[in-house]
Amino acid sequence: xxxxxxxxxxxxxxxxxxxxxxxxxxxxxxxxxxxxxxxxxxxxxxxxxxxxxxxxxxxxxxxxxxxxxxxxxxxxxxxxxxxxxxxxxxxxxxxxxxxxxxxxxxxxxxxxxx
Amino acid sequence: xxxxxxxxxxxxxxxxxxxxxxxxxxxxxxxxxxxxxxxxxxxxxxxxxxxxxxxxxxxxxxxxxxxxxxxxxxxxxxxxxxxxxxxxxxxxxxxxxxxxxxxxxxxxxxxxxx
Lengths: 114, 114
Prior knowledge:
The complex is a heterodimer of chains A (114) and B (114).
Chain A: E1 5-7, E2 10-13, E3 19-24, E4 31-37, E5 44-50, E6 53-56, E7 65-68, E8 75-79, E9 88-95, E10 104-105, E11 109-113
Parallel strand pairs in A: 2-11
Antiparallel strand pairs in A: 1-3, 3-8, 4-5, 4-9, 5-6, 7-8, 9-10, 9-11
Chain B: E1 4-5, E2 10-14, E3 19-25, E4 32-38, E5 45-51, E6 56-59, E7 62-67, E8 72-77, E9 86-93, E10 102-104, E11 108-113
Parallel strand pairs in B: 2-11
Antiparallel strand pairs in B: 1-3, 3-8, 4-5, 4-9, 6-7, 7-8, 9-10, 9-11
């Protein structure tokens, strides 16, 4: 497809379980972002990749969160030992280097930790 | 601390009238501002942007105004249409030096009544 694709769309995890969320960015987009959106709030920045390099991970809330983009295209956000406060929609966005913030967002993965 | 704030959580407007959405920011390093629109179960989509060197940008029915001294921006939609009913997010970026990552406000839910 032409847009940013995220999978799964919905994920229910038991507390303590590890989860992996996938993002397929728009082909050729160098920049890839992960955001976390809690219910009723705006998205919050988690981490940023330029190609395979993770240039900013200042938004990751704890060391249980880990992201990778090994070949500079598909990215995975992994959350270890999930907690209830991790319940949120996780949004992936991609953009070209020439864009100034006009990123294209995927539909998101809604994670519910029970 | 919230660097980008949208103080009106919701707005109701009659079809054909003007919708005005407001946004305030505190970080003087922001140099690019964007509005995103979000429908339920979809990711945010880019609507319009403005650079800090301008005070107005217009695109069809959408106009964004920036008042740097007041650290305030607004989005005007005229005329409003039922399809404009969505959640609107204001976002700001410190530019390429910060990887164009976005800081979002909490959103304003707009309902356009036919």
